[in-house]
Amino acid sequence: MFRRKLSALDYHNPAGFNCRDETEFRNFIVWLEDQKIRHYKIEDRGNLRNIHSEEWPKSFEKYMKDVNCPFKIQERQETVDWLLGLAVRLEYGDNADKYKDSTPDGAKNTENTAKNAEPLINLDVNNPDFKAGVMALANLLQIQRHDDYLVMLKAIRILVQERLTQDAIAKASQSKEGLPVALEKHILGFDTGDAVINEAAQILRLLHIEELRELQTKINEAIVAVQAIIADPKTDHRLGKVGR
Questions:
Q1: Paired strand residues for 236
Q2: Model's pTM, two decimal places?
Q3: Among 59, 134, 175, 194, which one is most buried in terms of CB atoms within 10 A?
């Protein structure tokens, strides 16, 4: 629970600090006073540094009063957290110029997210290398050519996301086990007069229905891909242009 504050103060073991270990706790208090808080003069820290003394708890209790800690000596976790907070405030005061221009991690992540939200925005679509690369990818993936190379690149991105990611490839590689089909439950609609031919016709009809379903799935995927391009607010599909 103290890791972030300990890390901010450059404590040597922020992840493994255990305030319930008496020796570790006493050493920590000495380090905190010597390195960060510095409430006492150096010559007045002797009793606090004598961590093996039976009188150390009294010295620590006096120290808590001197720094105006509002907690009791028995409330160890609360005391440690309060002292860490005091040390952080003092550390910032000593190094205000160092920290005043620093950016919180959350703000940095927000800026990075905003920059990465539209990775194509800063591309030079007129660059010959860019055009050649997009055309090579389009030919390799058998994607329909378009006058606007940025539109082609977005189509390539959609295809890669849907078909060439590791999850998509793994899913496509899985063997499909068909379910048993009771032919007698499927009405053929006509009678050839031969039971064997009737059964073959039923099988052909079922296979045809499965092919139609696969075709419909591909049509739906194509519609989604086109809609994803047209729905881009920067795309004017009537002019075949991106942006203004």
A1: 241
A2: 0.42
A3: 134
What are the CA-CA distances from residue 9 to residues 4, 6, 45, 190 (Å)? 9, 5, 20, 85
The first and second tokens of residue 160, run together, are 């890669």
- pLDDT by residue (tens digit) across 35-67? 999 999 999 999 999 999 999 999 999 999 999
Query: How deeply is 26 buried, as exposed, middle or buried, from its count of CB atoms within 10 A (0-12, 13-18, 19+)?
Result: buried
SS3 236: strand
Average pLDDT, the chain: 76
CB 27 within 8 A of CB 51: yes
- For strands 235-236 and 241-242, give the pairing: antiparallel
Tell me which residue has tokens 């090579």.
136
Using alpha carbons, select from 222, 227, 75, 242 the residue that is nearest to residue 149.
Answer: 242
Task: Please give the Cα distance from 10 to 67 (Å, whole number).
Answer: 22
